[in-house]
Amino acid sequence: MKKYLFLLIMLVLAMIFISGIVMAEQITMSLSYGGSEGGEDDISAKKFKELLEAKTNGAIKVELFCCEQLGKEVDIVTSLELGTVDMAIMGTTIHQQAAPEYNIWSAYYIFENRDEVLQIMNGPIGERVGEAMLKNKGIRMLGIGLRGPRHLTSNRPIMTAEEVKGLKIRIPLQPIYVKSWEKLGAFPEAIALGELYTALKQGIVEAQENPLDYIYSIAFYEVQKYVNLTAHQRSFFTYVMSEKFFQRLDEELQKAVLEAAEETAKFHNELQQANEDIWRQKLEEKGMEFIEVDQDSFKEALKDIPDEFADTWAPGFYEELKAELAKIRG
């Protein structure tokens, strides 16, 4: 009896020891994004977590940080470079900071539709952008998640570019954004996304621009009346990872990360396409009015902006992109 009791105790101790080793080997990674609960980046972050934890049998645990909890996008770029944040789902700020020589994506009316974005960013040009991020900042580009077109919201209807004059608008901190809205006669202010709701409520700014999912998930409908359908930018999320974190992983875990990111991007893009009409319906139910805008007036007013920034991009890149888009459009 004592012998069996001894063996049982040893077995329990061995299991505890093995369990301790497994727990010690578990890797915890941080995933930062700016959106709130229910936004497309939030849904996709949760999908990535689900996929990666399943593919690695729990060897990697993904901790999610929404709503700029770990810092503004500009700060997250530095954190990725230093390895203090492991992964992020980001807007065009990552391109401005990590691959400025290719950051034409912040210019307005570059793309006409979602398919153009995917063909460019999943093709040779996108590969070069990823190589530049890795070389410049040690940040690995994992995939592209489409966003809905960015639209202008305000408390007065805006139908033409002329009516933007004098508007106090919040924009992300990027030179081409500033130049574009100044060209339209607005007064742009760079305010962190997490502070924007309060800024609108207090009248610090009177307008902002974002895709419909952000307008809904951050409850801008409580402080804005109109969605002016400018569709001035076909933007996208970029899934990025600190190369320092990626190189900590063995080959099998690296493969799992890449597969999970690819599957999440596909899921994200299907989700975004299906949800655009749903977001509009939800916003209308919250009382927002949608205004049909003379987009041609905006395109005409902003047509020279890319040329003004062409010398800040890689030599010949703007012309190359225009040629590729011409091929896609036939």
From the structure above, extract its key features:
single chain; 330 residues; alpha/beta; D-Maltodextrin-Binding Protein, domain 2; 2 domains; six-stranded mixed beta sheet; 14 helices; 11 strands; TRAP_DctP_sf; DctP_fam
Task: Give a description of the structure.
With 330 residues, the protein is an alpha/beta fold. It has 2 domains: 26-147 and 235-276, 3-Layer(aba) Sandwich (D-Maltodextrin-Binding Protein, domain 2), CATH 3.40.190.170; 150-234 and 282-329, Bacterial extracellular solute-binding protein, family 7 (D-Maltodextrin-Binding Protein, domain 2). It contains 14 helices and 11 strands. The strands form 2 sheets. Strands 7-6-8-5-9-11 form a 6-stranded mixed β-sheet, sandwiched between helices. A 5-stranded mixed β-sheet has the order 2-1-3-10-4. Helix 2 (40-55) runs antiparallel to helix 11. The longest helix is centred in the C-terminal third of the chain and has 35 residues, at 251-285. It is globular, with a radius of gyration of 23 Å. 41% of the residues are buried. It comes from candidate division TA06 bacterium 34_109.
